[in-house]
Task: structure prediction
Amino acid sequence: MNITYKLTNINWRNTELDFLLNNPEGEIGRDLDKRAKKVLAAARAQVGVDTGKLKASLGLTRGRNVRGQFVMVGSKLNHALMHHEGTRPHIVTPTRSQVLVFNKGGQVIYATRVNHPGTKPNRYLKDNLYLALID
Result:
């Protein structure tokens, strides 16, 4: 059974409604920001730290489209997805020089290629997404 209501004599305040729904400083924008910051803080705490570049690159991006406001949490670094999803074993070859140089056990190693064992996924974003649902 469908119920239909006819609304009459309603005076919409379009400016106030637009501010509430679509402005980052409005109530919805502030709530989105608060929830995204919780996810961001937890992701920064969980992400692996080698050089600290990935952790420092994590941030918020606010936007608005025809459906309303949104906030994205993540990184623009190319290797961020590899850390999040993990990688299969693969071969690493030099791209900017003739050899790879790295330290292993305090000894400098030179190689023309390395068999990388792959990495386990660290789903620092997905694992903490539930925090956006908690008040």
